[in-house]
Write the structure tokens for this entry.
Amino acid sequence: MADLVYYRYDDVRRSDGCIDECGEWVSGTSYTTVVLHTFQVSRKTPKGAWLVSGRFVLDGSGKRWAHATKELALESFIARKKRQALILESQLVGAKTALKIAEKGVDCHERSPFELT
């Protein structure tokens, strides 16, 4: 199984900062990049694969942590990032709405944490 690998793409936030002459970290510009991780398969089963790291990855349709091909891994990464963007956009709308309410000085309504509406 040493030649069988699974793939996963992830986004990574990096910075090109440096340490100055006093030994202090000086932050530079940060950027996001996409990296491809490869995972060696230690054992294949009818339902999936055991990676050398000890993680089991299901085969078949649906959400999977890693994939047998780079193409499937890229499709999965794109789907994850689209979903993440939708969630973050929704949170941003909520935050901006709350900010507008607070800046208008409108009395906030007190609610019991157990109140269902």
